[in-house]
Amino acid sequence: MDKMIARFPAQLEEALLIAEKITLKKHSAPFRSVFISGLGGSGIGGGFVQDFVRSTCKLPIVVSKGYHAPAWINKHTLAICSSYSGNTEETLSTFEQLLQTGAKIVCIASGGKLIELAKEHGLDYVQVPGGWSSPRACMGYSIVAQLGVLRAAKLIPGKLFGNVAAAHKLLTRDLAAIQKQAHKIAGFLQGKTPVIYCADQMEAVAVRWRQQINENAKMLCWHHVIPEMNHNELVGWRDQRPDVAVIWLRNRDDFNRTSVRTDINKDIVEHYTHTSIELWSKGKSLIEKAFYLVHLGDWTSVYLAELRNVDPVEIKVIEFLKGELAKV
Fold first, then answer.
1. Is position 184 annotated as part of the catalytic site?
2. What domains can you pick out in the chain, each with its CATH number?
3. Catalytic residue among 90, 203, 215, 288
4. Which pLDDT belongs to residue 203?
């Protein structure tokens, strides 16, 4: 896993080359909505895309992480089905339903059934490199490929890809410092239940931290976003919780009211746990800041796995679940 995470910056660079070559066949109707279907690493990829294009894409984007395509999808929808393996059953179920809607379907996978079906139905598809043992380590391919599809559909500007290239340079340059900080954070989280808080524009980053801690370190974790948590979860901080470690993911350019809320929240929460730390992003664009924090979280999860003496690649319980589902 450490080798796969170390390749994340290079993966971004490789994904940019793949995205440059993406073209789409002409569709019969103009697009009025975007639908992304994906689970796990592919699903979180859709979450990042949603955040990254919020201020530039003029169409609504919905990310689905289940079995069903919503009833509003029609010929005016650009529908992206993303599954690294190409065999995710929820995404395949959604794909079959999309075929009946008239939507423009684009598939993203390394192979598997999804690519086979795309070829069978004459649909556009993007095939990303295969051979990675952990799909969650391939998130860079998923995000950049989805952005590439949106660019090919003329829904987002090309400047976003310059931000991805800048993120590659930032992560490559700061690798040693990121690893050093991640070691410290892992020690900070050892023996605790991590809680991740961030501004709403960074929720995909917090989800990524949670999922990586879940899968790599085999630990429970939860997250919430500000300001929404101020309307519910904040009231839950009522008892002393020495077993909880809070991480505040922050950006220097967070919306000013959100930043003030975060400061106040931090003061309140620290009455109930003394294990609280702020982590500030680096970079100029939202994409750079997000990928910086993602890389920091990925390394933290691996170092936590080392401290807990668990294999970060092993996901036996998920494999058991799939095996039981296959019997039904």
1. no
2. 2-165 (3.40.50.10490), 174-308 (3.40.50.10490)
3. 215
4. 96
